[in-house]
Write a structure and sequence with these properties.
83% helix
């Protein structure tokens, strides 16, 4: 969770490279919410295909977590 929060703060500071590193680290640790945050960062950067892939992975890895946040 620490890495996800760090990533979100870095996104707000427009430090996208550092944010991506932190969010990817959080995803590696199994944080489904970080996967969604990473997808959003990638979308903001115009990296749409990569963003969709991250969302697909998040849904497949932990569908209940991802959908619970969106309902």
């Amino acid at each position: 969770q620490h890495e996800r929060l760090l990533g979100r703060v870095l996104v707000e500071q427009a430090r996208y490279g550092e944010a991506e590193v932190a969010l990817r680290r959080a995803v590696e640790l199994g944080d489904a919410d970080a996967a969604v945050a990473l997808a959003d960062l990638l979308r903001r950067q115009g990296r749409h295909e990569e963003a969709l892939e991250r969302l697909r992975e998040a849904v497949l890895a932990r569908p209940a977590d991802v959908f619970a946040r969106r309902s």
